[in-house]
């Protein structure tokens, strides 16, 4: 016999989280759906993407892992020490170059996993990543990073190695618009997938009651 749990408290808490998340991302249709639609409609949407099946869940977990790696790689580029010489030594940009290549690898992996998923998840976030690039296209091109037709980043290693540290820092410091946009998108992917996977074990009726 099914047990019935009132999900109102859970629903309220999730709305509060998503309202915070949505402050700078009002154009994202998946987040808008979370905010504007009830849990039943959201669950049905996620099920149409493949959540709730082993094959579908594995696919989305790979996107989540890629997005987490992207967050980590970008966070590493936000560290001030990368842009400073060690005391008493001449500046060596090798660690910075390595971190940028790690970031590009993580970025491209995220794009690949989104492509594998397809649908609204891919379309929504691929668009966000492209828009973030376009806003900093000149600055990124200047340091050797370009956007390919498939939505992935390419690096001209010679141009990157010759780039000024300040030019690189202007793109990847934690206060830059590019850094904030990419980090926000990667974090949103993680949040949306976690929420959907957490809901897979319950079924919501039209009154916001979860049946276990």
Automatic annotation (TrEMBL):
<dbReference type="GO" id="GO:0009288">
    <property type="term" value="C:bacterial-type flagellum"/>
</dbReference>
<keyword id="KW-0966">Cell projection</keyword>
<keyword id="KW-0969">Cilium</keyword>
<protein>
    <submittedName>
        <fullName>Flagellar hook-associated protein 2 C-terminus</fullName>
    </submittedName>
</protein>
<keyword id="KW-0282">Flagellum</keyword>
<dbReference type="GO" id="GO:0007155">
    <property type="term" value="P:cell adhesion"/>
</dbReference>
<dbReference type="Pfam" id="PF07195">
    <property type="entry name" value="FliD_C"/>
</dbReference>
<dbReference type="InterPro" id="IPR010809">
    <property type="entry name" value="FliD_C"/>
</dbReference>
<feature type="domain" description="Flagellar hook-associated protein 2 C-terminal">
    <location>
        <begin position="114"/>
        <end position="182"/>
    </location>
</feature>
